[in-house]
């Protein structure tokens, strides 16, 4: 009896479940494992024995899971201690793995999760366990090192670009328009913010300005940008990454945050709301709207990229191949061969290269004025949002499958 | 030479342009008019002679317009004075209409716009003008009197229900989850908020609570609802209409607004952010997220209802029929014949019945606890979100056509 176990960790994406089905279906073909188990809520759940058997549930009952957004196996943000400090978690995990005849553990996650894969594979070598630990990349932020991009990013980018296009049309219907600010996620990196540049009409980006964390943000220069553009065209469309920073490297949303009021209430809202307030106070115009896309960026399967879904699926399938070749302590990675036609191959990278590292948006792809991105960014981004899935609908809504 | 003119007014919807194409294509068949003109930015634009000729532009160049969200002819919020007080606008409009040999004016809008149709048709009778004035309903709020529903609502409802489903999945992945609040538009009415009940998994609505303006909102009872549910299931999904009111009829977002801070900054955010703050301050949990869908509700064509698009189109076509029958001062209205199978017919109603009136969500469709809606609401809502358009995509994004 040879089994494997799959789990998810960190923030959800629209396509993370597609990697689970990729593992499951590839195994139906290759028959490496008798059972594909799933750990619910990442290693935190596995430590509590929250485990289901996907093979027993059967493909017919989970076929919609490939197109179900968000971490369908549940997630966690559980950081494993170094194994020489606190062995208890390791002992327990390996005991559970051994009881279930686990030969391979597939962990779908970001840089924190790859740290877990690194630690568990190192520990396995230390104790001469044959269990293989393989990482499958996932994050909407696209900030993983050693891979061209990450599953989950393309769908988030597609939602952002689609929303920019649609809200731009919404924000320019009057004779006297105002200023529109769209806030994207992305933490320290500008990949998601940059994807707003994909939204174009007549071959031109509809966003007038895009501000990314990789470029020092200067409030005076920002107001100058906005004032000039507003005088010029009577409307301004601004995209801002949540993580933009000042010259000291501090987040603008923290350094420029409005003071607490007398009751100690914290001011609500993120960078979009803050810039809205700054623009209104500057006197440019009081007609300012801010929209924060929030978690929609990581779960809008109805607007997902088919390329992204299929790549997430293939990453799962490829992880099985890496197991079959005897690899451990590696992550599936994407290597881009060409943009046009788009071609990516999959390879393996040492998880140590990925764990706890951050891949930033290339500064050279930001324009000289520091308020937009150039054609290289568009060439990189465009293939990742191609294609739309044919979701099954019932009563006007997509059919999703819940496992937890 | 017989011509007509079409214009749009008020807030955008995803499908408002479909009504323009409905007029245009029906006229290609019926040939009532030699030219279909469009007034840009409603009557405010027409008064400034912002007029284009759709017939000259030709169908091939505007075929994507049917699937382009937001008021593609531009909009305005221009209130016509009573014609006995200030005739200048009337004189100018009728002069422009006469110069263009206009026989019919089609105005696509909500209750304010129907007030304009009412005034212009009354004035035409007064001066013995033969020009016909016909209204075509449009509003995401679904608050127009004398029609079963309004084009634009179904698509907004579909976006809301889809987003509730997807963000529910996103908000329940951890072992310890928090509270999620989704804020919908709808001003004084609960139609949009109620549509969140369409989002179901395993036959049950995923939203635990839905609060609508038609039901007096009591903050203590709200906190009781939330506390009980959070203790029960470790997560709570709340939907709230922007316009909920207290027993005095005051908007909660105004009556309970947090005080300005020492610098006079206004607290940002709407009712969702306010309830988030109230929950955190109550000590139930600090893990609370609020999402405001904002203008996406009125422009997300990528998630539109096909039923809605086609009904908007048909309403345009039907307006031509009303002209042909010699009607003026009327609005196209929908009358529902049956829910299952869904069948609606179109009729005409006197715009006086619609102008400046508000149709509320039926209070009897709200549950006894005042925090959800019942099956009658679902039966009413479900057919309106059926079907998805097959949009044309280019570079991974929908192809939209701009006319202004």
Task: Write structural notes for this entry.
Chains A, B: It comes from Anaerosalibacter massiliensis. Chains A, B: InterPro entries: ATP_PFK (IPR022953), PFKA (IPR050929), Phosphofructokinase_dom (IPR000023), PKF_sf (IPR035966), PPi-PFK (IPR011404). Two copies of one chain form a homodimer. With 404 residues, chain A is an alpha/beta fold. Chain A has two domains: 3-152 and 303-357 and 388-396, Rossmann fold (3-Layer(aba) Sandwich); 153-298, Rossmann fold (3-Layer(aba) Sandwich), CATH 3.40.50. Helix content of chain A is 33%, strand content 19%. The first copy, chain A, has twelve helices and 15 strands. In chain A, strands 3-2-1-4-5-12-13 form a seven-stranded mixed sheet, with helices on both faces. A four-stranded parallel sheet of chain A has the order 9-10-6-11, with helices on both faces. In chain A, α8 links the parallel β9 and β10. The longest helix of chain A has 19 residues, at 306-324. The first copy, chain A, is elongated. Chain A starts with a strand and ends in a 6-residue tail after the last strand. Residues 259-268 of chain A have low confidence and may be disordered. At the A-B interface, α6, β7, α10, β11 and β15 of A face α7, β7, α11, β11 and β15 of B.
Query: How do the SSEs of chain A run, as a string of H and E?
Result: EHEHEHHEHEHEHEEEHEHHEHEEHEE
Which strand-content bin applies to the residues of chain A? 15-25%
As residue ranges, the low-confidence spans of chain A are: 259-268
Number of strands of chain A: 15
Largest interface: A-B, 71 and 71 residues
Number of helices of chain A: 12
Oligomeric state, counting identical vs distinct chains:
homodimer
Mind summarizing the main beta sheet of chain A?
A: 7 strands, mixed
| Total domain units of chain A | 2
Overall mean pLDDT of chain A = 95
CATH class term of the largest domain in chain A: Alpha Beta
What is the helix content of chain A?
A: 25-40%
Termini separation of chain A:
26 Å
């Amino acid at each position: 009896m040879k089994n494997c176990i799959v789990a998810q960790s960190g923030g959800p994406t629209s396509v993370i479940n597609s990697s689970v089905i990729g593992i499951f279906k590839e195994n139906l073909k290759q028959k490496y494992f008798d059972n594909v188990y799933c750990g619910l809520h990442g290693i935190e759940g596995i430590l509590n024995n929250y485990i289901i058997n996907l093979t027993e549930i059967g493909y017919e009952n989970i076929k919609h899971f490939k197109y179900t957004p968000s971490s369908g196996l549940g997630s966690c943000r559980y950081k494993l201690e170094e194994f020489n400090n606190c062995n208890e978690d390791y002992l327990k995990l390996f005991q559970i793995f051994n009881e279930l005849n686990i030969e391979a553990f597939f962990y779908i996650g970001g840089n924190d999760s790859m740290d877990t894969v690194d630690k568990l594979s190192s520990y396995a070598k230390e104790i001469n366990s044959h269990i293989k630990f393989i990482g499958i990349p996932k994050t909407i932020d696209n900030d993983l090192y050693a891979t061209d991009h990450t599953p989950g990013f393309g769908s988030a980018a597609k939602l952002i670009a689609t929303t920019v296009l649609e809200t731009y049309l919404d924000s320019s219907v009057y004779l006297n328009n105002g200023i529109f600010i769209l806030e994207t996620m992305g933490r320290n990196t500008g990949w998601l913010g940059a994807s707003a540049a994909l939204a174009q009409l007549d071959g031109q980006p509809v966003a007038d300005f895009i501000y990314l964390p990789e470029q020092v943000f200067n409030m005076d220069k920002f107001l100058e940008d906005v004032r000039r553009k507003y005088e010029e065209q009577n409307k301004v469309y601004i995209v801002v990454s949540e993580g933009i920073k000042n010259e000291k490297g501090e987040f603008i949303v923290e350094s420029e945050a409005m003071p607490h009021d007398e009751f100690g209430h914290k001011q609500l809202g993120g960078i979009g709301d803050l810039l809205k307030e700054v623009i209104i106070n500057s006197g440019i115009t009081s007609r300012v709207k801010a929209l924060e896309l929030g978690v929609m960026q990581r779960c809008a399967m109805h607007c997902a990229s088919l390329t992204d879904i299929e790549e997430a699926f293939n990453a799962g399938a490829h992880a099985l191949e890496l197991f079959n070749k005897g690899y451990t302590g590696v992550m599936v990675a994407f290597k881009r061969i060409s943009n046009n036609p788009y071609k990516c191959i999959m390879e393996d990278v040492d998880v140590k290269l990925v764990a706890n590292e951050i891949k930033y948006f290339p500064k050279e792809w930001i324009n000289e004025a520091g308020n937009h991105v150039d054609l290289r960014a568009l060439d990189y981004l465009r293939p990742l949002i191609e294609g739309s899935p044919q979701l099954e609908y019932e009563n006007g809504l997509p059919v999703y499958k819940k496992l937890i």
